[in-house]
Amino acid sequence: MGEKILYAFISVFLTINYGFLLNGLIRKIYARVGRRHGIPFYQMYIDLLKSLALRTNIRHGVMFYLGPVFRFTGGIGLFLFMPVIFGSELFANFSFSGDLLLLLSFQFFGTLGMALGASESGHPNSAIGVTRGLAQMTAVEVPFVMALMAIAVQYQSISLHEIVAAQQGGITNWTLFTNPLAVVAGMLAVLGSFMRPPFDVVLAPQEIPIGPPTEYHSNYMVYLQSNRAIYPLAKSILIMNLFFGGATSFGEMMLKTFLVIMWSVFVGVSFPRFRVEQSIRWFLGIPLIIGVLAIVYVQFFLN
Length: 303
Fold this sequence. Notes:
With 303 residues, the protein is mainly alpha-helical.
């Protein structure tokens, strides 16, 4: 067990650093699209050191300070309870039979924690952010769960390790080719999880100049910055395992997760931000319909 924990620490360390560098690259891409030079790709490390050097005298309720901890725990938990590299003891983490249900819980865990933390801040606009965040995340989860149900029925398993194992043996065994409807529904739904345009309705940087980046600082901001590195990457690894055959090497994992994240970046630089009701209506429209069709397809054509 001690060796397993050590491997998990190494896995988290390598992946979170990859996430920091990837986030720096993404911000650089956004800047170049806007015809700006942008920040250096290592800016995330500078921001992290700045936050660690700060101290705060602001006092709120206990839940306000637990919000960033819950947020970071959601990202770390999502990463630790799924296999990162198939067949690798170092990157196997703590995956187990039926872990897909636990992974779904971790996706919502951080959002609920931040909602409870915002309620302790005392700011009148906190309720706006909480309402937007929970409403959009609920709308996102509905089509995504439809896609997961189709995959679980297809492979007769809710173990992520078994789902990845079933996709080995060639690219044609990937869910992308055996159940494209589930992949389309999942890839459309996951856009809301990354919270990039046009689905960045929670922070709404052009509309509300407040929120976690300004209310949380010092060590609490470190948790949020670290989660921004680990959570999108963990989500991308989950998508890779479900739809694209998993990965059998660290290089393959980096390539596939990079392409998954670039999917959200491409959409983000191509479309302006939705209003809240537009975002919710969109997720409960086409992605949900395709998710339902994926279940029908599996039930009548694959079983």
